[in-house]
Amino acid sequence: MNRSALVRPRADRNSKLMGTPxxxxxxxxxxxxxxxxxGVASAQSLPPPVDGLLSxxxxxxxxxxxxxxxxxxxxERGQPLADVVISAVGGSTSFAVSDRAGQFTLRALxxxxxxVRAHLDGYVAARHTxxxxxxxxxxxxxxxLRREGAAGxxxxxxxxxDAPDSVNARDESETAWRLRRLKRSILKDTEALSLPTDDxxxxxxxxxxxxxxxxxxxxxxxxxxxxxxxxxxxxLLTTGAFDTPGDLLSTERTRxxxxxxxxxxxxxxxxxxxxxALNQGDLSSWVLTGNYVTRTPARHRxxxxxxxxxxxxxxxxxxxxxxxxxxxxxxxxxxxHDEWRVSxxxxxxxxxxxxxxxxxxxxxxxxxxxTATIRPFENTRIRGVATRRVSAPGAEEFLPPSNSQIxxxxxxxxxxxxxxxRPEDTRHYEVAVERELDGxxxxxRAFQQGTDNQMVTIFGLRSESSQPAEIGHYFVGSTxxxxxxxxxxxxxxxxxxxxxxxxxxxxxxxxxxxxxxLDRTRLSRTMPSALREHSERVHDFTTAVETAFxxxxxxxxxxxxxxxxxxxxxxxxxRPGLDGRWxxxxxxxxPFMKFTSADWEMLVGVRNLFREAFTETxxxxxxxxxxxxxxxxxxxxxxx
Length: 640
Known about the structure:
Blueprint: H1 23-26, H2 56-61, E1 67-74, E2 85-89, E3 93-97, E4 103-109, E5 112-119, E6 129-133, E7 138-140, E8 143-144, H3 159-162, H4 174-182, H5 186-189, H6 198-224, E9 231-242, E10 254-266, E11 270-279, E12 283-294, E13 300-313, H7 318-323, E14 328-341, E15 346-357, E16 364-377, E17 380-391, E18 412-415, E19 424-437, E20 440-452, E21 455-459, E22 473-478, E23 481-496, E24 499-513, H8 518-526, E25 535-549, E26 554-566, E27 577-589, E28 599-607, E29 625-626, E30 630-639
Parallel strand pairs: 1-7, 1-8, 18-22, 21-29
Antiparallel strand pairs: 1-4, 2-3, 2-5, 5-6, 9-10, 9-30, 10-11, 11-12, 12-13, 13-14, 14-15, 15-16, 16-17, 17-19, 19-20, 20-23, 21-22, 23-24, 24-25, 25-26, 26-27, 27-28, 28-30
């Protein structure tokens, strides 16, 4: 979440705090611990956020107490099986390997339903089962595998879904009743129904064709990875930006995006994931990222990876072409982090992020991070963080989050003046105390920041030739240096069995040390409310609500951020003021699209928030974004 903060002038500025896509319709005790972990309470039946659509900030603002899936794997004779790979797929993916007693445990799972499978070479793969994870609870799922060539295999929990109806063995619970019916495809049922009418032929044939295409792809993937417990996701999305409803009809502002994710366990110790996204048009771009995470629990939990993004512009925006003399930009990054559990009561984390931006005069930048957590009492923890984050203008277009869906670069950007691009350097310190009480997580934090070359992002700004920039193009400049000090409180609570919400309030004092750069001279003429003078008090209120409707397989997420220091662009405003920004996302399950074991969902999201992340970044990053266009994302997701 965005951290609003208080700042005092410093006697010595040279003393650094720490030296960082048929379309829509089908379609991150010491001055060293991460910002306040907002929220750890969740509705018991509420599914976790969809991978990607609910970005990392959702987990930062409305996270939930995790649960566990445990069980045992047996053969057809009732003997335990070791080295069986068990996977659980929900909003995220988790893997475990059974021990000599056939037992396994999947830990740190967000509350909600999970698709659980078991796989072992030489044995017929078990049918999947649906397991609901509840907060701070232990769910049980037991599998029985048979050797290849033997008869009869059942997976506990899945038998009631796929086995023929039986008077004596049928599970009559509401969940089982729905699963028995949702499992069958509507295309399979058409054999027992009357022939479709003329109006139905197109829809039926189209669905069958799509089903065969994905079936063939699944077989090909199975031939290549017949012994690998791979899990993946394919998104076919459309994304675009608009200022008015009429802009939605313009195909020039919409782009198709293909997103692909693939992951698998690495032995008993960790999981690897590879994600890629690309789009084609006047801005052709792609992003590729891969990471490895050690599976918990572990004394050392490692996470490392890399990403590479490229964007090439072939359009006719003169300002964008002038800012990209090579007609392309490239950004590469590598990162690594280790969380070391020193004891039951204390853990420490350390690592860093190295990025290379080819469009900067000084392209290479390193951002270190140090964290610590103390658990003096049960359900209580004290956390601290010390980070330095060097962020280049436009970095959000190239550096995707490692744990969610990614989109390739969608927009072009240019420097505000001939001063060119200057990276923003933020040093962030924070200490937080959190306490869990009967499903409610309460947190209090204090933080301090120092930022050099605070970025300002402006959409719709007229160029030197007085031509207004397109809404897909923006300018980036610097408003000066700022020091911030502040405090905040947060609360996360399960409002009902299907609703959880959170809020965070912070107040901060900022002290600006302005310069006489060309950026400030132009801002004074074109966007005076982006300039801040001397001291300023900032109030921030952010709330999030996440709901689920199991009966219709629908999930909704709403986030609203209100702040007293937004850039105001309505004439004749020349000072910052109170404003709000929002993010609305809807995820609709498509059970009638189950041609294979894949899960289908439709994603629709609209937002005018510009930034993806709030924690450990400058409190002004989102506040100094002027005229952000509304962004629409929609399409189809297939998880296999």
